[in-house]
Design brief:
Number of domains of chain A: 2
Number of strands of chain A: 2
Radius of gyration of chain B: 26 Å
CATH class of the largest domain in chain A: Mainly Alpha
Largest sheet of chain B: 6 strands, mixed
Largest sheet of chain A: 2 strands, antiparallel
Oligomer: heterotrimer
Distance between the termini of chain A: 47 Å
Structural class of chain B: alpha/beta
CATH topology of the largest domain in chain A: MetI-like fold
Strand content of chain B: 15-25%
Chains: A mainly alpha (304), B alpha/beta (429), C mainly alpha (284)
Helix content of chain B: 40-55%
Strand content of chain A: under 5%
Number of helices of chain A: 13
Chain lengths: 304, 429, 284
């Protein structure tokens, strides 16, 4: 009986288990080594840096303890940036998903040329952000921009979107929605296609109207996709940088500044490496928090 | 007794050996490394100014076989700043770098730039006297020299001369800010719906340039933004007057508009823009109309902040430093400066360059380019606060508050002063 | 009476079909317009660029705008750098992802789930937290301004590993068991069983990764200081600082340089790409 209490060491594993162990380690080592060096280690190093005042130039680092975090708490620009980021994430994701779901439902009706529609609507997904930002900056140009063609007949006065404190964030949101609709639409379309016609037929027989069909049948059945897009969409917007950097540079007066761009400014323009690292850490914690919520909620809300 | 003597002899021998080998090692260090020394020069600016720099590098490399300069374009001044920061953090720096003049102080303070005093000491006695004092002044930190003036500029007013004629204005620049205001009113046009189709002027809001032109306005009102001791004077009458003028032009007269690109001038959206003497080449090339470059308006007096770049040396290796110094002398020397000034519109940085026959001939044939030279007599160093890490950003936000958000002038000036004081106390002292 | 209701029914059908087409057409035009505008602007002359109302087709097509834009910076070199770094990144990324995916799908290990979650956690971490630390690491390795500096930090591709693992798990156990019985080790099983059967997913992943790396902006910007090591997006963003020398028409022309290869790939393979992403993500 004693042998049942033996600790399982490598020596006591069967050949097969040993082979599995070595294979597992060998197969996953490259990935984990790379992740370890370039993803996980930076978190700790960033935390370390966030406790110092360092301008990246001199070898001298001043220990501050948690002063950077206190400064962040008291910095009105930080809170403005947080507000902008959350507004941006919220509006972008909701509007984008609503539009793309609607378009997906239209595409789902067997229409001719649907693959052409789909291909064009999806194309911004693969376009470089730099190019997107540059063409949209030109579209938003108050005097000669394309947007004015649409807005002028509708009676709107000339608005300089990018240089207005009230319109710069909406401009960024518009661009993010524009470039993200395709991706969401494609996923929704796949989810819609997965619903078998029999369910709809049964509902029609029961006398359901289209409103009931959508909310009681379609929507619950696509909930895994909806949830996935909601969470990943939200997190992706939280990480948005390229468009803000190239189109508005966060301005004017931080009206379109978001967390990641603010981080970049602090680290690479204003020599506040410690403060920037603190920002990075806060962003990181917030995203982990959202991911945790996602885990809990997915168990409750998603229907299969 | 014999042992002791032996010991003494051994010790003396050892000391002799040690010192001769040290001396020999010292000698070895003195000899130049074999082959040409290669140094790296980080430069900025594109278009005409970029090409002109490449030409200077080429001429230098052709004239010497013991040094090769490799020039690397690093983007705009702001990008060079980031690159240099990151490079210093990682121990990977160029031998020479073209720095936007306000950035010199930051790096000099941290001791990452070579103090040039010892190099100057090896040159003939009047080496520094040839440089125009107003252009050399901001290359010093703590009374030591850390850079030489490379491509210096002053702010100018670029005017669409055709629009002046169209508006019935004389074909010359406004002499004072008051006159400037009147000009702008006449140069503003609206269409049938009352929407403006042409403004008098576009006030630059660029991240690295917005503050510069405002400094010129404050100097004209006989004030300053800050002094050498970093005391901020923004809340005093001259600065307030300049700020109020600009704000009223945007919101009361509606004859001015915040602008981010010189395209506004080329597109004929505005009749005048502020620009650098350094962009003169490009502006003249791109404009499809007659351009009149002019002084920044005066008011109580004339005064313009010097701008542009200096060339500094982050190099850490002794021989590369020597090579870098040779290139610095060449770049800031008479012939190169005459060439650069002629090609780009940046100012010749020395008296001898200003008097170079090629340049004199060129200015005679193209009188407009002489504007830069003539304005030299009004040149002053820039405000000290722009050397603070966040200094130019704070000033730019001040302009955004004034010209975009239309906030009360006194409030804006007070806030800006508070921000600058804080920045100085926390990050510079 | 019956005739009427059939007619009405048909009428509604046609109307709804037209409505659907209209909606889709409107969406397609809205999404596609900026691309069209980019192209139109790129071939205009400077005077035509700044006119309102805008001109939709220039009088003379200014192909020389492309030449001017190309000459503003060494775009040829940018192309080479983008191709090399994207290709290397994709290849190495696929290899490491495939190995990891296989391990998580088919190798029995007590702590396998823990490590899987650990890997997933990495996917959630925003890249910006790693900017400064990664730069310092690269500098110590003297990898600044090198291809490996651009490529290596982003080789580990969690999304790819996740996707491949999903796919491997759909391959019937019987195939794997048969291979095991034949005495094949894990390496051989992966190479001869798992990978060949995953060609569609691998293809999709390859294209997807390539485009992602092609479009990357922030990291290559930080890692490269030499002009001749820059990639296309970085080069494109940099010519904006030449604002006095070039105008919107040249910026749009340069943008097209960056977009063309990706658009070609996209339109040749979009069906596969779109469907690959749809199936990969929906099962999640």
């Amino acid at each position: 009986m004693a042998h049942l209490n033996r600790k399982r060491t490598v020596h006591s594993m069967s050949i097969r288990e040993k082979r599995d162990l070595y294979a597992f380690v060998g197969f996953t080592a490259p990935t984990f080594i790379l992740l370890g060096i370039f993803i996980f280690w930076p978190i700790f190093y960033s935390f370390y840096l966030s406790l110092f005042k360092w301008n990246m130039i001199s070898p001298r680092k001043t220990f501050l303890g948690f002063q950077n975090y206190r400064d962040m708490y008291n910095d009105p620009v930080f809170w403005l940036v947080v507000k902008n980021t959350l507004l941006m994430a919220f509006f972008t994701v909701i509007v984008k998903m609503a539009i793309s779901l609607y378009l997906a439902s239209q595409l789902n009706k067997k229409v001719k040329g649907s693959s052409v529609y789909r291909a064009i609507i999806f194309s911004p997904t693969f376009t470089a952000n730099v190019a997107i930002a540059m063409v949209w900056a030109w579209i938003f140009e108050p005097t000669y921009g394309l947007l004015r063609v649409v807005l002028k007949p509708l009676g709107f006065p000339m608005i300089d979107w990018i240089h207005s404190t009230s319109h710069s964030l909406p401009a960024v949101i518009i661009v993010l929605i524009w470039s993200g609709i395709g991706y969401d639409m494609v996923l929704f379309l796949a989810a819609l296609k997965n619903i078998s016609m029999e369910i709809y037929d049964a509902a029609l027989v029961d006398g359901a109207n289209s409103y009931q069909i959508f909310w009681r049948i379609t929507f619950p059945l696509i909930s895994p996709t909806t949830f996935f897009l909601l969470i990943t969409g939200f997190i992706n917007v939280l990480k948005a940088f390229d468009i803000v950097r190239i189109m508005t540079e966060g301005g004017p007066l931080n009206s379109s500044n978001v967390v990641v761009h603010f981080l970049y400014q602090n680290a690479f323009q204003w020599f506040r490496t410690g403060y920037a690292s603190a920002l990075a850490l806060i962003l990181f914690l917030f995203i982990m928090f959202i991911t945790l919520i996602q885990n809990r909620l997915s168990k409750r809300w998603v229907h299969y | 007794m014999k042992k002791k003597r032996v010991a003494v002899v051994v010790v003396i021998a050892m000391v002799l050996c040690l010192s001769t080998s040290l001396w020999a090692a010292g000698q070895v260090e003195q000899t130049k490394p074999e082959g040409p020394i290669k140094i790296i020069y980080w430069r900025s600016l594109t278009g005409v100014a970029g090409e002109a720099q490449e030409e200077i590098v080429k001429r230098f490399n052709e004239s010497r076989s013991d040094i090769i300069v490799e020039s690397q374009f690093q983007g705009a001044y702001a990008e060079i700043l980031q690159k240099l920061q990151a490079g210093l953090a990682a121990g990977d720096v160029p031998d020479l770098v073209l720095l936007d003049s306000p950035h010199l102080q930051i790096f000099a303070k941290e001791g990452v730039l070579v103090n040039l005093d010892e190099f100057v000491a090896k040159e003939p006695k009047n080496f520094l006297q040839d440089y125009i004092p107003g252009l050399l002044a901001d290359s010093y930190y703590n009374n030591s020299l850390y850079a030489l003036p490379a491509l210096r500029s002053t702010p100018l007013l670029y005017i669409n001369e055709d629009m002046l004629a169209e508006a019935g204005l004389p074909r010359r620049a406004p002499a004072t800010w008051d006159e400037f205001r009147e000009y702008c009113k006449k140069l503003t046009k609206v269409d049938a719906n009352g929407e403006p189709i042409q403004y008098g002027v576009g006030f630059t809001m660029g991240a690295t340039t917005a503050h510069w032109y405002f400094q010129g306005a404050v100097y004209a009102f006989d004030g300053k933004i800050s002094d050498e001791n970093f005391v901020v004077h923004l809340t005093e009458a001259p600065a307030v007057a300049a700020a109020k003028l600009w704000q009223d032009m945007v919101f009361k007269d509606k004859s001015a508009v915040p602008s981010t690109s010189h395209d506004d001038l080329f597109n004929k959206k505005v009749a005048m823009v502020f620009g650098s003497t350094g962009s003169m080449g490009n502006v003249m090339n791109r404009a499809t109309f007659k351009v009149l470059p002019a002084f920044i308006p005066g008011q109580v007096r004339n005064g313009v902040p010097v701008g542009g770049s200096v060339i500094a040396m982050p190099s850490t290796d002794k021989w590369r430093q020597w090579a870098a110094w040779e290139f610095m002398k060449f770049f800031t020397g008479t012939d190169s400066q005459a060439y650069l000034a002629e090609k780009t519109g940046y100012m010749p940085n020395s008296t001898s360059a200003s008097n170079h026959p090629d340049l004199v001939k060129y200015y005679a044939a193209n009188p407009h380019w002489k504007v830069a030279i003539d304005q030299l007599k009004f040149v002053q160093p820039q405000a000290s606060v722009i050397s603070l890490p966040k200094g130019t950003e704070i000033l730019r936000q001040m302009l955004e508050k004034l010209l975009i958000a239309n906030m009360d002038v006194y409030t804006v000036m007070a806030e800006t002063k508070a921000d600058l004081d804080k920045e100085y106390n926390e990050n510079f002292k | 009476m019956q005739n009427n209701s059939i007619a009405t029914h048909r009428f509604y059908k046609i109307v709804s079909k037209i409505a659907t087409h209209c909606i889709l057409l409107a969406a397609t035009i809205t999404i596609g317009m900026p691309f069209v505008w980019m192209l139109v602007t790129a071939i205009k002359s400077p005077q035509e660029v700044s006119i309102f109302p805008p001109i939709w087709w220039p009088e003379v097509i200014r192909w020389d705008n492309f030449v001017t834009a190309w000459n503003t910076a060494p775009f040829g070199r940018f192309y080479i750098n983008s191709i090399v770094t994207a290709a290397a990144g994709v290849l190495l990324g696929l290899i490491t992802s495939a190995f990891a995916a296989y391990a998580f799908a088919r190798i029995r290990f007590k702590y396998r789930d823990f490590f899987f979650l650990l890997m997933l956690a990495a996917m959630m971490i925003p890249g910006q937290i790693a900017l400064i630390p990664n730069y310092v690491i690269l500098a110590k390795l003297k990898w600044i301004n090198t291809y490996q500096g651009i490529v290596v930090p982003h080789i580990a591709n969690v999304f790819g590993a996740f996707l491949l693992r999903q796919y491997f798990m759909t391959i019937p156990d019987s195939l794997f068991d048969a291979a095991e019985i034949d005495g094949l080790g894990h390496m051989k099983i992966m190479l001869h069983v798992a990978l060949p059967l995953s060609k569609p997913v691998l293809g999709t992943l390859l294209l997807y990764l390539f485009i992602q790396k092609w479009n990357a902006y922030l990291w290559p910007l930080i890692v490269t200081s030499k002009q001749n090591m820059r990639t296309l997006p970085v080069g494109l963003a940099m010519i904006r600082s030449a604002e006095y020398a070039i105008g919107p028409e040249h910026l749009m022309a340069a943008s097209i340089f960056v977009l063309v290869p990706v658009l070609i790939i996209y339109f040749l393979a979009q069906k596969q790409l779109i469907e690959g992403i749809a199936t990969g993500a929906v099962k999640g």
